[in-house]
Amino acid sequence: MQRLKTRVQFQAVMAGSTVSRTAHFALHRLNLESGPEAEGSQALFAVRTEPWVGALLPKRWAKRAVTRNAIKRQIYAVSQSVEPTLPAAAHVVRLRAGFDRSQFVSATSDALKQAVRGELQELFSRATK
Q: Model pTM?
């Protein structure tokens, strides 16, 4: 599995379609195999036979860096575990709503990690159906 690194890669994927949503996350996908946008993405994505994954976490929804980093680690761990079921496409997991700080006081709490992991697993399972 490859990771998205450049701004241009993220912009190309965000211009693609949203394939699934949960309460806090949205999954955007850009197919690398066919379609008009795939022609322009050839230079952006050198390896086109495996999935690409990126995480987009705005400060608006996760103000503390420790929270953003903890959620990113969960995104990459869950995407690594579901890699065999993902198509050869570029994916961006976008945080679209914040987690309630009164319910999850600590960014490294087990409750937050379990909530994020469960929601990400649901997000990817919806996208592969």
A: 0.84
